[in-house]
Amino acid sequence: MSGPRPVGPADVWSTSAVTAARAFEYWRDLICDTFVQLSATPTAAGPFDGHLVHADLESFEMTTVAAGGQRVRRTPRLIARAGEEYLLASIQTRGRGRVEQDGRVAELVPGAMALYDSTRPYTLHFDAAFEQVVVQVPLRGLLAEAGLRDARGVTAVQLGADSPAGVVAQFFHGLARLQRTDPLAASALAAQGRGLMASALTLSAGRVPRGDVLTRHRVEAFLRARHADPDLTVDDVARAFLISRRTLYRLFDGTPGGVGTVLRRIRVDHAKSLLLADPGRPLEAIAGACGFGGERQFYRVFRAETGLTPGRFRGTSGQ
């Protein structure tokens, strides 16, 4: 970054690093360096406070933004000056706002998500303090993966928390929290982020991800996003993709045990990363974090998949 400098850890920045008189100017530099070239103005008089936590997760970038009210614009002049090509998703976690692009307005309330495209003008507006997670993915490859020619039909469409695409918002919200407390586990889960964002694109366009878009990989990404829920069922998965149980099972014909086996292995893989990342964490807590119904089930499934008990795996890996 050219102007602003990190405060504390290399991926954390805050206006507390400068005087109150320079706070918004500093913030404007921060958001331009973190996302794309933008113009910004505060929506209220008085002191301004802003905080960014940014992570580069290889196939996408993820930033938690907590700040005071502001109006942020991506203008034609700024696009001509720096033609960055990204799809961005704002996932609201606190406060309210809106995204405006392509003649549409998406209201951002806690739990909702909206997409926008950096190659065309857009506006983000927040009347008061807010918090959101912003996911930023290179546009061209993502469009190809989603089976779309461009993003004009998917921008500034509200994706509610209760919609199928809301699962994607829940995943990234959880991933942002996990990144701050357990970066190793977050890195393991982040591998599914790009596929989930492609699914969000498809759903935002009003299309059901079928055929070459609804693939086994997409269903696996959904399972990774929801695997920590011990009550997740085959019916839940089929309903999320608007397909029958039979169609879902057919996707996993080549896997003994089918979709249930895939879910168990995802849970075990997550448990492995937690066992290694935090040697002092109780097994009961790890079982709960990975979606197992209890420590006894965790022990039985882990041993069946790895040939070791969780405790033995942790001790052997630490040698």
Automatic annotation (TrEMBL):
Pfam families: AraC_binding_2, HTH_18
Keywords assigned: DNA-binding, Transcription, Transcription regulation
Domain HTH araC/xylS-type per the UniProt entry, residue ranges: 217-316
PANTHER family: ARAC SUBFAMILY, HTH-TYPE TRANSCRIPTIONAL ACTIVATOR RHAS-RELATED
Record's protein name: Helix-turn-helix domain-containing protein
